[in-house]
Design brief:
Blueprint lengths: L3 H15 L4 H12 L3 H28 L2 H27 L14 H13 L2 H14 L5 H25 L10 H29 L1
Helix pairs in contact: 1-7, 2-3, 2-7, 2-8, 3-5, 3-6, 3-7, 4-8
């Protein structure tokens, strides 16, 4: 019989790692406010997390943690990408516009999907949280309990991303004003910059 406690443990641990101001969350929030490709982007984020969690629970976390070259490549690539997105966020903050669905600020589907995938797979924190941390902690469970633990963590991703993407529209009255977009983009720019700096620091410290 599958342990409910194992599933709940995975769910709450997964939620604690996901619910933080990060690259994925900032992007999904902004797209949710624009009502732009919300379903597909939330689905990509949640499925990607589920795939990485499954890989971690399956034992990939140990292999990734033992590959310094792979970690260095992903870390440097993630820093460059996050730094570029921070620059774009600061540039948008200089010329904010009131929120309108389908506005010129909204990305096309292909660009939105590509950006979402980049935020997911070029961010080393995603691998550390899902593959390495959640994967290593799954060693405390065996058999069906381990599967339940991984499933609980994956469900947390689905609940969070769809809640964030579709819940963002509750803030639409606030973001009808250009000043609100300026504040959001400045916050996003600062978060992305700090993440990029932390990754560069880690890269050069390990060099």
């Amino acid at each position: 019989m599958i342990s409910i406690s194992a599933a709940l443990s995975g769910f709450f641990l997964g939620a604690s790692l996901i619910i933080a101001i990060g690259a994925q969350n900032a992007f999904v929030l902004r797209q949710g406010l624009l009502r732009s490709h919300v379903f597909i982007l939330c689905l990509i984020c949640a499925l990607s997390d589920a795939l990485l969690i499954a890989a971690g629970v399956g034992g990939l976390g140990t292999l990734v943690s033992q590959s310094p070259v792979l970690i260095s490549v992903v870390t440097l690539g993630g820093a460059v990408f996050l730094g570029s997105y921070a620059f774009m966020a600061f540039r948008r903050a200089l010329h904010p516009g009131a929120m309108q669905a389908g506005s010129p600020q909204a990305l096309g589907l292909k660009a939105a999907v590509a950006t979402c995938l980049a935020f997911t797979f070029l961010n080393p924190h995603v691998y550390l949280d899902t593959v390495v941390l959640l994967g290593s902690l799954s060693a405390a469970y065996q058999g069906q309990d381990r599967i339940a633990y991984g499933a609980g963590a994956a469900i947390a991703s689905f609940v969070w991303f769809f809640g964030l993407g579709y819940g963002a529209r509750l803030l639409q009255p606030v973001f009808a004003k250009p000043a609100a977009w300026r504040v959001l983009d400045v916050i996003i720019g600062v978060v992305m910059s700090l993440l990029a700096i932390s990754l560069l620091w880690r890269f050069f410290a390990a060099a």
